[in-house]
Amino acid sequence: MKLKKILAVTLCLSVAFPLAACKSNVPADTSRSEASGGTASESGEAPAPEKGATLTFRTGGVDSDLAWGKAVAEKFKEKYGVSVTVQKGTEDNLKKAKLEAVAKSGADVFMLAHDLSYQAIVQGILLPFDNSIVQGMKDAVSPVALKTVTKDGKVYGAPVSVETSVLFYNKKLVKTPATTFEEIFQKAKTYNDAKQNKFWFLFNANEGSPLYPLLSTYGYNLFGADGTDENKPNFDTPEFLKGLQVIQKFHELMPMKAVDSSNTDFLNKQFTSGKAGYIMSGPWDVKTYEKANVDFGVIPIPTYDGKQPKVFSYIQNAHVASYTKYPKAAQLFAQFLVSNESAELLYSKAAKITARKDVSKVSGLSTDPISGAILEAFQKSAPMPSVKRISYFWTVIGEIGPEVFDEKLSPEDAQKKAVSEWNSLIQTES
């Protein structure tokens, strides 16, 4: 199946990304945008940028994101005459945006994963987009992705890319890629040499996102089947307990401390130097492997015990800060980030996949086997819940997951601790 056909299927999946109402922690500053004509326009035409406008754009946290950001900023300047300073972001983009919202100074446009987009929207630090900008995005962008930035009929961002986790394999070491984790376990028994930092399989066992596929193996669903019931983390279910047992088992596959596995530079170096057969990662690392001249392939996450683990899928969104001095220019730039021109740069510079409905005009993307494999994995993924209490899940799993992996905590005790920690977090809401 050609990639563009796969994308048409994956981006039209009927999934829910609810944006429930919540008390705002930071009051939105819309006075400047209203005075500048940055609020909803009925003209149907995108507003021209303000005279003398300059912008600052904060990308995602990897080098390829920065390369894409700089390239697309140049294209935007050619088209609109607006200079854009580009900064490399970090995993703390939301935290930084909150501080900047209080100071009313910082990046005009910044990137966030869609679960963080939800938090930013309800905290009132984002500017709602002009109706004409929204209409243009509705025509171009996946409706599934657009839901992640929509609340009460208003749109607060531009969906830029879709992502999910996959397994990369080194073709020099792996002649036929595994279809089951049992095959990977079997090879690891004779290949692994912890003293030499040789591991057949690598992944980050210290964070919730890469641990979720293991938790989901036997049917665990965070916040229910559709991920919308934030009152039910389902930590007290037998499926969650069995998922914790899988995490414990995977220490045999990768016998190192969980905290050491969180060093992505180390993991990538082991893979690119030919010391590892497989690594769990995503499109954000494709350029790293290409630059290292690794002959690699991509497969979806294999089965374990005959079960198909679920991985989270993510939408990376571009947002406009509520305090921006140039709301028209900032919205135009955010919209430009989902244009076909940007999609081509996103693919060529960052090896990422656009959230646009149609990729047929994105040069190279529709015939790329790596992107095709990632989209195949996207089809099998579960959208990361976009609810307020997703942050509680990350807190709980980020604490108990590594302890179970390191065999410091039994799955049974970890389950009890998860329930207790969750209840404690709920109490903080009152």
TrEMBL record:
Region: Disordered, residue numbers: 27-54
Pfam families: SBP_bac_8
GO cellular component terms, A-Z: ATP-binding cassette (ABC) transporter complex, substrate-binding subunit-containing
Taxon lineage: Bacteria, Bacillati, Bacillota, Clostridia, Eubacteriales
Domain of life according to the entry: Bacteria
Biological process terms in GO annotation: maltodextrin transmembrane transport; maltose transport
GO molecular function, one term: maltose binding
Family to which this protein belongs: Belongs to the bacterial solute-binding protein 1 family.
Keyword terms, alphabetized: Signal, Transport
Signal peptide coordinates: 1-20
Protein name, as recorded: Bacterial extracellular solute-binding protein
Low complexity: compositionally biased ranges: 33-46
